[in-house]
Specification:
By secondary structure, this protein is mainly α. The chain contains 2 helices and no strands. The protein starts with a helix and ends in a 6-residue tail after the last helix.
């Protein structure tokens, strides 16, 4: 039991010594450059709606005109 306790204390002591001798170096910080983004989005909703409205008028006109059946 005494050998186990000495081994644990020795391991803890070696760990604490090893932990104290570490060195951390921070290299120069690199600047991050954020370039502007240009995004082009084609939106054809107005044209599509205008065409729907245009053809809706034509479709209504065709419904009013009924072909004459002999």
């Amino acid at each position: 039991m005494a050998k186990t306790m000495i081994f644990i204390l020795l391991a803890a002591w070696l760990t604490s010594i090893a932990g104290c001798q570490t060195q951390h170096k921070v290299e120069s910080v690199h600047r991050i450059e954020v370039a502007p983004m240009h995004i082009t989005i084609d939106v054809n909703i107005k044209v599509d709606k205008a065409l729907d409205d245009f053809f809706k008028d034509i479709d209504k006109a065709e419904e009013k005109i009924q072909p004459s059946t002999p």
